[in-house]
Amino acid sequence: MPPKPSARFAVYLFIGLLFALSVLPACGSAPPGEITLTTRTPDYIGSIYIGGAVNDPGLYPLKAGDSLQDLIQAAGGIKDGADLAQASLTIPEAGAGGLPQRIDINRAEAWLLAALPGIGDAHARDIVAYREANGPFRSTSDLLKVKGIGQATLDKIQDLITVSD
Predict the structure, then answer these.
(1) Cα 111 from chain centroid?
(2) Which residue would you say has higher pLDDT here, 29 or 160?
(3) pLDDT confidence bin for 134, thresholds 50/70/90
(4) pLDDT surpassing 50 at residue 121
(5) What's the Cα-to-Cα distance from 76 to each of 21, 129, 154, rounded to whole Å?
(6) β-pairing, 44-51 with 88-90?
(7) Alpha-carbon span 52 to 60, nearest angstrom
(8) Rg of the chain on CA atoms, in Å
């Protein structure tokens, strides 16, 4: 006599449970995989605070290749009638509570150097030209060798700049 359907179901259930119990320990013993998600793009450098004469002051992402104009546009452009010299850029250092990060005068592009107090576009171009002609600066005081930059200007930016090898 063939087994009743309920008995057949019980046998299948028992076999299924045995199979599941034999497979589960193998699955559970493997170390969990690690998944890392990032929202930053490969060209992301950091964040920069744009304030002063811009329409929407705030913290904006800085990407490789961004120009000063790109950053100003991200901040809504210059306010009507405002002087571009009244715009300010501050690069916060991670974990520094909003303190500005030092700008490496051996690597910074002219637009970033121009954001330093008392530097402007002309002196920024002169710094880059001096660096290209004479090699990297050995100390921040070497900026005094750049035409038009004196001790008073260096004193204003001393805590905002650094040099790398």
Answers:
(1) 17
(2) 160
(3) very high
(4) yes
(5) 62, 31, 31
(6) antiparallel
(7) 14
(8) 31
* 26 confidence band (pLDDT: 50, 70, 90): very low
SS3 of the chain: CCCCHHHHHHHHHHHHHHHHHHHHHHHHHCCCCCCCCCCCCCCEEEEEEEECCECCCEEEEEECCCCHHHHHHHCCCECCCCCHHHCEEECECCCCCCCECCEECCCCCHHHHHCCCCCHHHHHHHHHHHHHHHCCCCCHHHHHHCCCCCHHHHHHHHHHEECCC
**Full set of structural domains in the chain with CATH:** 39-101 (no CATH), 102-165 (1.10.150.320)
Q: Which residues of 53-79 are buried (b: 16+ CB within 10 A; e: fewer)?
A: bbeebeebbbeeebebeebbebbeebe
Mean per-residue pLDDT over the chain, rounded: 74
Q: Shortest CA distance to 43 belongs to which of 68, 66, 70, 64?
A: 64
